[in-house]
Amino acid sequence: MRLGFNFTLGETTPLVRRLLAEGRIDYVELLIDNFLTLEPDAIATAFPAPMGFHIMFSRFIEAEEAALADMARRLRQLIDRVRPLYVSDHVARFSHQGRQLYHLAEIDYAADYEQVRRRVDNWQQLLGCQVLLENYPSILDGGRDAPRFFERLCRDTGAGVLFDISNAVCAHRNCGLPLDAWLPVIDASRHFHVAGYNLSILQPHLVLDTHDQPLSDDTLAFIERYRTRFEHPGATLTYERDDAFVDRDIDADLKRLRTLFPLAEARLHA
Ligand SMILES: [Fe+2]
C-alpha cells in the first residue's frame, strides 16, 4: 500500500515536501481544480513523487456540456503530461432548484441513478480515462443505498470507486449503514482515502468529514479488521488534512497507517 497526502493549498508545500523527504508518504494527491491555470510542466515537476488527481468542482452531474468540455480539455493536457495514479471525482449535488449549496449534498441514489449513469459515461468520455468516484459521508437514511448504487454504477459504466474509509465510518455512525455492506466495493477498489472527522456543533450531533482531526479509533479498527482486503497490488491510501496542520498529529497518523501497511509491501507492489 502506497501512502499519500492531499495537496490542496500552496501553503502546505513545505509540509508535503517534508513528508516525502522523510519517507512518510510515497505520492501526492492534488486537488487539481486549484492548479488548472499552471503549466503542465510546473505541475509535473512540483514534487519528486507520483501524483493522483482529485477533482472537486467539475459538478459533472449538473454542469452544462460546454463548461464540462472546456474543463476536460484542460484536464486532459495535465493527465497526458503527469500520468496520474488515478483521476477521481465526486458523486454529489452542488445546487438545489437553481440555488448554489454552501456544502455539497448527497444525491438520491434510487431516483438519480439513470442521470448519474449517463453523466458518468459522458465525463469519462470527455476525460478519456476511467474516473474513480468517491463515496459520500452520508447524513440521511438514503445513504444506506450507497454501496449497491456504486456497485451497479461501476458495472454499468466501467468507473471505479475511490473508497473513503472514514466517510464510510461517518455514514455508519450517522445512518447505521453497516461497514460490512462496503466489502464488495472495497474488494473492487484500488485507491482509498482516510481522514479524521468531527462532531457537528448543533445537536443532535452528526459526524462530519472535517479532515481536521487525528484518525478515530473506529476508523483504525475498520482498517485493521479488513487490512488484507484493502491491500491490493498498486493500491494507494491518501491521508486527507485540510485544516489543523499539526505536524506531530499528522506524523503520528501516518506512522499508524505505515504500521498497518508496512513499507516492504509498498515496495513489493510498486
Ligand atoms: Fe475523501
Please describe the topology of this protein.
Blueprint: E1 2-7, H1 13-21, E2 27-31, H2 40-44, E3 51-54, H3 65-82, E4 87-90, E5 93-96, E6 99-105, H4 113-127, E7 132-134, H5 146-157, E8 160-164, H6 165-175, H7 183-188, E9 191-195, E10 198-199, E11 207-208, H8 217-225, H9 227-230, E12 236-240, H10 247-260, H11 263-269
Parallel strand pairs: 1-2, 1-12, 2-3, 3-4, 4-7, 7-8, 8-9, 9-12
Antiparallel strand pairs: 5-6, 10-11
Helix pairs in contact: 4-5
Bound molecules: fe (ii) ion.
The site of fe (ii) ion has 4 residues, from loops.
Protein name: Methanobactin biosynthesis protein MbnB
Organism: Pseudomonas solani
InterPro entries: MbnB/TglH/ChrH, Methbact_MbnB, Xyl_isomerase-like_sf
